[in-house]
Amino acid sequence: MLLLNNWRARTGFMTLLLVIGGFLFLPIVWMLLTSIKPEGEVFVRIPTILPHVPTLENYRALFSHSETAMQLRNSLITAGGGALLTVMLSTYAAYSFAKFRYVGRKPLMFLMLSAQMFPFAMLLVSVYPMLQWADLLNTRVGLIVAYIILALPSGTYMLYSYFINIPNEIIEAARVDGASEVYILHRIVLPLAIPAMVTVGLYSFMWAWNDLLFSLTLVSSPELRTVGPGLLLSYLGEGRANWGGAMAESIVISLPVVLGFAFLQRYFIKGLTAGAVKS
């Protein structure tokens, strides 16, 4: 009876995993299959799962356009620059909140975190006139600043959760030995915080890479467009939509994030779980 119950439990568990896996991966599989379908098989009354005549024409057309490489370059510059600056600024802010005691420390931290309470569209209403006043609209620098504003609160909190668990005895011992605060942060604390910093950087990069709202609003020049607006404006319109080309470009522009996460996965998981248990 016990073996029968174990068999039923394993079967039920595997069935549940298959259902969840199908729910998660079916859109990706459908996107991949659509990208290799000719246009005549995409716009049919009853679509088929597998293409009758597979084709790579959508990928050939994608790589023959210079706009795709330009948009990828713009996204790498803005998302990468925003991620690097977010890691730098959130590191100093989080270390200050975690290891120093001064007047207004907690209110300042709560004020920074309160920015996460508002929808991104509401933050855009505040960011737009600020960038307009600084003459940073329709520039890569302005878009990088917007990405920093949006990712800094959550990045600071993640690093704060990591720094708060670093034993103060390590820092006090370094101070007794005559080390300066700058030396302690850069030579002692930061090597211990690499998983958390990678987590913040990867999180910021993924958010900026997948952004559409801010990049579509703050940048209007075609030569400065990132992959999100480029995908929307190139393949989707009121009169006609090239779904095969859109799916092909979606797969290509997803590769940097997928590869980055694959290489940095162990740091990402370690950084997310480091602040979960008080040491």
Layout of secondary structure:
Elements: H1 2-35, H2 39-42, H3 57-64, H4 66-99, H5 105-113, H6 120-133, H7 140-163, H8 168-176, H9 181-192, H10 194-209, H11 213-218, H12 227-235, H13 243-263, H14 265-274
Overall average pLDDT: 84
Superfamily (CATH H level) name of the largest domain: MetI-like
**Gyration radius, rounded:** 24 Å
Largest sheet features: none
* Ends distance: 44 Å
CATH class designation of the largest domain: Mainly Alpha
Specify the structural class. Answer: mainly alpha
Tell how many strands the DSSP assignment holds: 0
CATH architecture classification of the largest domain:
Orthogonal Bundle
Strand percentage lies at under 5%
Global morphology: globular
Give the helix proportion (percent range): over 70%
Pfam families: BPD_transp_1
Membrane topology: Multi-pass membrane protein
Keywords: Cell membrane, Membrane, Transmembrane, Transmembrane helix, Transport
Transmembrane segments: 12-33, 76-98, 110-131, 143-163, 184-209, 243-264
Detailed description of the structure:
With 279 residues, the protein is an all-alpha fold. It has two domains: 34 residues, no CATH class; 211 residues, MetI-like (MetI-like fold, Orthogonal Bundle), CATH 1.10.3720.10. Helix 7 runs antiparallel to helix 10. The longest helix is centred in the N-terminal third of the chain and has 34 residues.
Keywords:
disordered C terminus, BP-dep_ABC_trans_perm, globular, MetI-like fold, membrane, 279 residues, cell membrane, 14 helices, Diacetylchitobiose uptake system permease protein DasC, mainly alpha, 2 domains
